[in-house]
Amino acid sequence: MSYQQMLKERGIIQSMSGKGNCLDNSTMENFFGLMKNELLSLQEWDSAGQFAKKLVKYIKYFNHDRIRLRLNGKSPVQYRALFQSEKAS
Description:
By secondary structure, the protein is mostly helical. The chain has helices at 3-9, 26-38, 48-64, 76-88.
């Protein structure tokens, strides 16, 4: 199965921006920078598996518990829910 086919089956639209267009990468670049500072650099890892387990926990924390001033003091999940409820009203 091709990579593009797997994306399509999961409803994911692949980025097709031109070379040098970083706008669609900025969100992930920001996340990776924060993850490196808040998780990766804080300890030495015994294995990739150990890091992968902590990364799953970090992503849950990042989305559900880590508040952002840019999101009015809410986590991304809280902010998205508020936005969707306001949009529905």
